[in-house]
Structures are given as C-alpha cells and as structure tokens.
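BUG: 3D viewer hangs when loading the predicted structure for this chain

Environment: internal workstation, default settings.
Expected: structure renders.
Actual: progress bar stalls at 90%.

Input used:
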Amino acid sequence: MRAGAFDAAWAISDAVLAARDPTTRDDPTLPYHLRWIWDGRAPDGRRVLVRCYHGLGDTLQFCRYLPRLRPRVAGLTLEVQPELIPLLHSLPGPDRLIPFRPEAPTPASECDIEIMELAHALRLPPPGAPYLTAEPLPRPAGGMLVGVCWQAGGWNPARSVPLPALAPLGRVPGVRLISLQRGPGLKELSDAGAPPVLDTGDRSSDVMAVARLLATLDLVVTVDTMIAHLAGALGRPTWLLLPAEADWRWMSGRRSRWYGSIRTYRQTRPGQWADPVARMQADLVELIRRRNLGNPGTHRRL
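Structure tokens produced before the viewer hung:
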C-alpha cells in the first residue's frame, strides 16, 4: 500500500482473510479498532452495513468508497461516529446514516464490512479527492490565512510537533497563523518561543465547524491527524508534517494518491523537525512571493 502496488496488497489481504478463524469475526472481546468484520464474500446485491470502528480520520479517508459501493448493493447503511454525520450527509452513497454507539452497535445486516475494508472488498485504488464539501466562514481581513495543527493523538507522540518548532512559519511576512488545535488548555499558545497564533477559542468537537474553517483558509499546515484527512477530503491546499517513519497511507513521495491537495514534509532524522519546517518556510516564502506577483492560484499547485 505504501508503494502503491494495490494488486499485490489485495493478494496479501486475501491470504490474511483466508487464514482467519471465522468464529473470531467481530469478536466482542476485542477493542473495536482490532476487530475484523468482512467475511470475504462480495457485497453485490445484498444489504450492506458499513461500520466505522476506527478513528475519525480513518472514516474520512475511506468514506470516498461509499459512492462506488452503492450501485453494486441492494441497500447501504453507514454506522458512523456521531460527530461526522452532519458532514457526511452531503456524500452520495449511503441510504441511511446512523450514529455508532459502542455500547449498543447496530444488529448485523446481510453483509457487514468495516469502512477501512472497502478498498480491499472493492479492489479499487483510491478514488480521487475532493469528495466532501463545506461552506466557508466569513473571511477575516489581513494577510494569508494559514491554519496550523501541531498536536496529534496522545497514543503516538512522534506525530506531534512542539509549537515553538513552527516559529519560522510565523516569521514569514504576510502570513497570519490561525490555530486548528482542538481540546482544552493549549498552554503552548503562550509558551516562550512559540509563533503568534490566533486562537479562535473554539474547543468543540463540531467537525462541520472545523470543515467550514478549513474551507476559509488559504493553506492548512498540520501533523498526521484528523485535520489532515478532513482538509484532504475537502481538497484544501495542505502541507503535512510527517515523522521519519510515517504511516503507510502517506506513501513514499511528496504526494499521496489519497489526497491530491496534500504535500508532505518528512523528517530526515527521527525526532528532528527543523529540516522539514525549514523546507516548509522556504516554500511559504515562495508562495507569498508568487501571490504578491498577482497569481493567487499558484499556491494550489505547491
């Protein structure tokens, strides 16, 4: 999958699926993210329940397959994280969106499949982005608006960047940094050495509100977290900071086939963010220069 050899990936997945004990399917003794759901039979002509047992970013990445699945099946229900329902209402494909409640999952359908299993089941490389939409917010005046998200989930600290490491971006003339970070506190916003970042004060989990903010920005700078997938699904120009050993989905080059609007900046040494941030700063300076020359669409190709 990292190399884009999708047919080889499907063959490996076939072998893994064939070796599984069918009695362990959707094993209730396991955490949801460790369960396997699909039994390997084609979904064609059956009523399908797509379950979302992984993170918000995973759902956003793989929901692109739902419009491709719908013409092949008799009915399509998506059991999805409640936070995503307002955003996914505009996505063609599902007949019904129902909230996933871990304490009371939806009863099985004729064909159950976890959303990250759709690529394997359909034997499809990534359909292109964008595939989600959001109305932009009223645009604040002044400068190029760059949203920044520097903290990923606590389960993998290697993905997060200390906010002071992004200080070179805040020094680029004409750039206005806006926080995309969710959650309480955000002590780093006032830490010594941190760049000046406008804090919108919104700590809600309203993904649609975040999507509307992303639709308003000129550029998104983020680490590997839900914000990256949301920005990519919306087709927003996005620069992604990655650790040296990045997740497979970002592939091996500066672009990933999953999201055409995302450009990646990888560490050259584990734990060291100075090099990718320096490359990003140089690209940001060039982007501002081109915008000032009267070609505002150039940043979409960087």
